[in-house]
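Researcher: We're teaching a course module on how sequence relates to structure. For the next exercise, students receive a sequence and then see the predicted structure as tokens, so they can try to spot secondary structure elements on their own. Here is the exercise chain.
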Amino acid sequence: MPRCAQRCLPRRSFVASDARRRGQLCTVPIRPESTCRSGKTVQTTETTSQSDCQSDLQSCRDALEINGVSLALYAEAFAKEMGKANHGTIALIGSVAGDRGRKSNYVYGAAKGLVTRYAQGLQHCFAGGGVKVVLIKPDSTDAPMTAHLKGKGAKLASVEGVAPQIVEGVELGKPVIYAPVKWWLIMMTIRHLPAFVFNKMDIL
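Model: And here is the predicted structure for the students to work with:
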């Protein structure tokens, strides 16, 4: 088992069960809510705005833990068991927001940037082995979490359009999936803009 898959186990007790050496299933019980260090229970579907994060450090911390740290901890629990079996696929939901920090959502973007770097490291750990790590980077998708954006007239990708791309990419074991695919080109352009140009843009 890769050395890095043996460390960084979650602080909470996760029990990985039903890890079948010849099968595809490795389950770790996941609760639909997360308890942050403040002791406050936050639904994982709750959205925290950038302005909330800037005005309240606890909201900022919660956003970072829920959108970034918690994903890495859960994935590490799976990685431990999958590393033993040398089989399986770990699919992590990142975001195009993690490709470059922007003023409109830099706290959320920082959390998803953590997920990106974590996924890259895990891919390096399992390179050449039987475990695949897939990083999914969806654009804003028409779902309950983005209802507030839809209400403001934002153009959102449809679940029906995004889901097949993700399923196909996971089955193929692609390292990174941009959904919709056009965001690969969009974000490549944004990532490579010089800072003196990017910082003059009123980009959301």
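Model: If you want an answer key for the exercise: The two ends are 42 Å apart (CA to CA). The CA atoms of residues 68 and 156 lie 22 Å apart.
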